[in-house]
Structure formats: structure tokens, C-alpha cells
Amino acid sequence: MGCQSCVIGEIYFEVKMEGQYNSKILERITSYLENHHSSIDQNNNTWKIKETVLKELFDFSKDMMDQRDIYFRIESEQNWKSFHEAEAIFEQQWIDDVIKNELITFFFQPIITAKKEIFAYEMLARFRDEEGKIVSPSNIFRAAKERGRLYALDRVCRLNAIKASRAVDEKVFINFIPTSIYSPEYCLKSTVNLANSLGLNPSKFVFEVVETEKVDDIDHLKSILTFYKEKGFQYALDDVGEGYSTINLLADLKPHYMKLDLKYVQGVAETVEKQRVAEKFLKKALEIGSIPLAEGIENKEDFEWLKDIGYQLFQGYYFGKPSPKPLKYV
Known about the structure:
- The chain is an alpha/beta fold.
- It has two domains: 3-91, 2-Layer Sandwich (Alpha-Beta Plaits), CATH 3.30.70; 99-315, Alpha-Beta Barrel (TIM Barrel), CATH 3.20.20.
- 41% of the residues lie in helices and 22% in strands.
- The strands form two sheets. An eight-stranded mixed beta barrel has the order 6-7-9-10-11-12-13-14, surrounded by four helices. A five-stranded antiparallel beta sheet has the order 2-3-1-4-5.
- It starts with 11 loop residues before the first strand and ends in a 15-residue tail after the last strand.
- Residues 87-330 form the EAL domain.
């Protein structure tokens, strides 16, 4: 994946033609595209083209070609897709404007100590479209993934979160997606430079791995976390549960904070199985020198139970919902 992935620019696609019918008219179509577009790179039955050309080819292929034998992929991606799926990418073009114009704001949710003192804030991105309407994060990330914009989205969120963090003196937890960082030295350089230029101490920031249990490339994750640590930042593992906390790799990752998945938090005061997981998680966190944090707390009973067995940090609606203005006390 090239450096252009971190910014919003023209998307290039690879398209390949197969099938007897398409082969018969391949030369004629190639000639047309080369005469009308200068950005055609052909290699046998495969083309490298811009999105504008892809749209034209897509419309043409509906009537003149057999779409079942045409495949495409965003340049440098591994998997080929059926050509009819290209229409979904065209429909998600709005995400480019969201990223390019940085239509992002941040809400703050408090993370508290056992004494109900504010220790930090998790910074949660909220998005709006060009008309100012709120767009759900799930739609944002789905559209970004569809168009190959996760790199650019993650970067703009990370940088804007650092800017917004100036509103508080406490630590801030900032989410990031490991798969959206292909080279820590390159992708995170702007993060380090921005924090330095704003005079912010790296120890203020805790970068939180989103969906820890879904990380497949542990070595890549370790390289990212090592980079953060070397630059003075801290990191947390999010949504850690029974499956992930039992593997020995946690000892290698050595996160500064481990967040117990809310599905083991909510109702823990009354559920023996959740208590077992919470206790096992706590033991593992303390064993590797990580601070245990319980997220998703919605009632006093769960908070008191987790506090009594030794959890140190807490987060959830019971203490405060995400807010555009950070709460100063709970």
C-alpha cells in the first residue's frame, strides 16, 4: 500500500477481463479507452485505471459486455471482486468529503478511579456529512473500508483527536485500528510531530487498540506498540475477554492498560460465569504489570463488585456519557 493511502486522492483500480465474449471485444474497448483517457496502463487482459474511467467502463459493460467475467480490485489489494460490486464503491464516494474536509468532532467520556476521581477521558469520534447531518461511526468505517480509505480515516481521526485533547489536562485514550497502519515509522510520524509541535507530553496519550480479539497479525501489532512506547506514548488493549486473556502473547505485548470487555462487566455482580472471567482477567493484568480497566459499567452493583476485587479504573454510563464538553467531576 503506497503513501497515497494516507491522504484523499484519486483511487486507482485494476480490472481484468475474462470469458470468450469479453475477449472478442477487448481490443476495441482498449482502443477506445486509450483514445479518450491518458491514464490507461494495460498488461494483457488487465488494466490499471482511475475511478472516473472505471465508472465509464461500468456503464458501458452493462449492455455491451458480460459482467460476470469482469473482475476488479482497488490497486494493491489482494482480493478480486465481481465487477457488479464496483457500484457500491461509487455510492460510498461521500466518505472522501468527510475525510478531506475533516468533518469530525470529538466527545469525551470520563475514565475514573475507584474513588470516583477522573483519571482520563476516552475520545470518541463523531462525524457529520456535508449537510451537517450526523453519520453513525459504523457507516463511516464501513464506507471507508469499502473505498480503501481506512488509512486516511484513521490518520485524520488520530490527528484531530490530538488537537482536541488540549481541552483537558488529564490523559486521553485515542482509538486506532492496527490494520490501518501498514508502517509505524511512516504512518505514525505525523502523530509524533503534531504532539511535539503542540508542546504535548507523549505520556498524556494512551492509544487504544480497537477490537483486540480480531487482530490476526500479532507481529505487526507488536511493531506498532513498540513504536508508540519508544516515542513515550502508552497503549491499551480494548475489548479483552476470556479468549484473548488466556494466551501468552499478552505477556509479550505488555499493554499499559487492559480493558475488560463490557459483556463481562454488565451484570457481573450477579453472574458467576462473568465473575470468573473478570477475576481471571484481573489476575492476568496484574501479572504482566498492566492496569485493569472495566468498561461499560451502568450500575452501582457492578462497579462496587469490580472495585472490591481490585479493579483500578472504570468507564461507563454510570459515571458519564460521552459529551462534547468534558465532565470535570462525576
